[in-house]
């Protein structure tokens, strides 16, 4: 009678086995899982409890939560509720340990499949005829892609200039383009990269110089700043960016912008003014060699003009410029100013694209082409621009599509 009074709540549990047997077990909530498992085995496998290992070789799983119940915990501790479904499963037997003969055979197989070492390769290829392998093929293939893209930009610049020159407001458009160019020159430094360096404690003017010298790479700029921390000329302006020249250039720009054609100017005078603006835009986009790369390559014995040409062909990359100087020197600097064949399927497909056609009437597109022509590292900036990005995306897609066919 006392057991009935002080006994815990009785739960009715639905138990199933993998063989399809099903039954109800009524157990108090303070019953351990091990005891419940013994009752289940006694019910479904008579005589199984004679072997004490039988209990440890089985497990109970809660069907809803898919949780394996712990033998030492009670039904209440495992949060089992009335009418819950439990699954009695025999545990998988551990895989047998491999025999020594099997281990030896496996090791032998691994040794047979092992790649040969350098000595074995030299021994096996000793009698083969030697060949001069051109290790620059992959590099030339990549450079050929860049050269083709450059040719496209050269030809598109010519088309854009002609289209914009046909506009009645051509002079005003190019004055606007020139102003945009001036603004772009002032904002050339990546603000995020500059902020990262200034937060490290570097002076802003010095950080700007480091970023321009290292193509906006924060890591390389930081290394340059640390390396030149004690250099007395570290704050000297870059070549072509002295304050006096910058002031003179700004004055010339404002003079050209304000000096528009008079109401009595002829079409020929307007054409001459456009030509001068074209020249001014090109002059601002003239190639500026990396001073450090120039010094390093000249110390190797190369002439200054050759070094500048090499850096121009290889986008200021010193290692690539050195390979160009030591190699066949292709493409030549003259090749950089050649456009693509205007009758080629690639160029015709680009010109027939509506997005490109619309973009060529925008002065900003012309500036983007000019900038990418002389500064390929700025391509990402123009790809992310809402006005020039769609044009560049279409050109890239057409180029890739025709290259695959």
Automatic annotation (TrEMBL):
<dbReference type="GO" id="GO:0016567">
    <property type="term" value="P:protein ubiquitination"/>
</dbReference>
<dbReference type="GO" id="GO:0000151">
    <property type="term" value="C:ubiquitin ligase complex"/>
</dbReference>
<keyword id="KW-0677">Repeat</keyword>
<feature type="domain" description="UBA">
    <location>
        <begin position="182"/>
        <end position="228"/>
    </location>
</feature>
<dbReference type="GO" id="GO:0005737">
    <property type="term" value="C:cytoplasm"/>
</dbReference>
<protein>
    <recommendedName>
        <fullName>Ubiquitin-associated domain-containing protein 1</fullName>
    </recommendedName>
</protein>
<dbReference type="Pfam" id="PF22562">
    <property type="entry name" value="UBA_7"/>
</dbReference>
<dbReference type="InterPro" id="IPR009060">
    <property type="entry name" value="UBA-like_sf"/>
</dbReference>
<dbReference type="InterPro" id="IPR015940">
    <property type="entry name" value="UBA"/>
</dbReference>
<keyword id="KW-0963">Cytoplasm</keyword>
<dbReference type="InterPro" id="IPR052476">
    <property type="entry name" value="UBAC1"/>
</dbReference>
<feature type="region of interest" description="Disordered">
    <location>
        <begin position="97"/>
        <end position="116"/>
    </location>
</feature>
<feature type="compositionally biased region" description="Low complexity">
    <location>
        <begin position="242"/>
        <end position="259"/>
    </location>
</feature>
<feature type="domain" description="UBA">
    <location>
        <begin position="288"/>
        <end position="328"/>
    </location>
</feature>
<comment type="pathway">
    <text>Protein modification; protein ubiquitination.</text>
</comment>
<dbReference type="InterPro" id="IPR057650">
    <property type="entry name" value="UBL_UBAC1"/>
</dbReference>
<keyword id="KW-0833">Ubl conjugation pathway</keyword>
<feature type="compositionally biased region" description="Basic and acidic residues">
    <location>
        <begin position="105"/>
        <end position="116"/>
    </location>
</feature>
<dbReference type="Pfam" id="PF23326">
    <property type="entry name" value="UBL_UBAC1"/>
</dbReference>
<feature type="region of interest" description="Disordered">
    <location>
        <begin position="231"/>
        <end position="272"/>
    </location>
</feature>
<dbReference type="InterPro" id="IPR041926">
    <property type="entry name" value="UBA1_UBAC1"/>
</dbReference>
<dbReference type="InterPro" id="IPR041927">
    <property type="entry name" value="UBA2_UBAC1"/>
</dbReference>
<dbReference type="InterPro" id="IPR006636">
    <property type="entry name" value="STI1_HS-bd"/>
</dbReference>
<dbReference type="InterPro" id="IPR029071">
    <property type="entry name" value="Ubiquitin-like_domsf"/>
</dbReference>
């Amino acid at each position: 009678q006392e057991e009935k009074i002080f006994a815990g709540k009785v739960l009715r549990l639905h138990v199933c086995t993998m063989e399809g047997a099903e039954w109800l077990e009524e157990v108090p909530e303070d019953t351990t899982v091990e005891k419940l498992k013994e009752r289940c085995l006694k019910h479904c496998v008579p005589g199984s409890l004679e072997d004490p290992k039988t209990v440890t070789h089985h497990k109970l799983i809660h069907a809803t939560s898919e949780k394996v119940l712990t033998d030492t915990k009670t039904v209440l501790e495992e949060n089992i509720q009335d009418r819950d479904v439990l699954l009695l499963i025999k545990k998988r037997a551990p895989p047998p340990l491999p025999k020594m003969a099997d281990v030896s055979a496996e090791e032998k197989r691994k040794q047979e499949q092992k790649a040969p070492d350098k000595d074995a390769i030299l021994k096996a290829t000793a009698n083969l005829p030697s060949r001069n392998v051109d290790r620059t093929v992959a590099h030339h293939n990549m450079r050929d892609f860049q050269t083709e893209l450059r040719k496209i930009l050269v030809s598109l610049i010519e088309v854009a200039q002609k289209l914009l020159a046909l506009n009645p407001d051509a002079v005003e458009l190019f004055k606007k383009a020139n102003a945009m160019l001036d603004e772009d020159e002032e904002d050339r430094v990546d603000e995020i990269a500059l902020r990262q360096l200034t937060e490290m404690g570097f002076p802003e003017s010095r950080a700007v110089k480091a970023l321009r010298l290292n193509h906006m790479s924060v890591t390389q700029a930081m290394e340059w700043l640390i390396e030149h921390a004690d250099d007395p000329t570290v704050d000297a302006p870059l070549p072509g960016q002295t304050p006096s020249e910058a002031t003179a250039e700004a004055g010339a720009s404002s003079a050209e912008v304000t000096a528009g054609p008079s109401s009595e100017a002829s079409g020929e005078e307007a054409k001459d003014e456009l030509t001068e603006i074209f020249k001014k835009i090109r002059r601002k986009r003239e190639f500026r060699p990396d001073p450090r790369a120039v010094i390093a390559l000249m110390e190797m014995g190369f002439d200054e003009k050759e070094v500048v040409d090499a850096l121009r062909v290889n986008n200021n990359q010193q290692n690539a410029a050195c390979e160009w100087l030591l190699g066949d020197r292709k493409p030549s600097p003259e090749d950089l100013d050649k456009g693509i064949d205007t009758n080629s399927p690639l160029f015709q497909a680009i010109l027939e694209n509506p997005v490109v056609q619309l973009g060529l009437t925008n002065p900003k597109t012309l500036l983007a082409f000019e900038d990418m022509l002389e500064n390929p590292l700025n391509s990402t900036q123009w790809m992310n621009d809402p006005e020039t990005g769609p044009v560049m995306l279409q050109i890239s897609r057409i180029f890739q599509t025709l290259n695959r066919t």
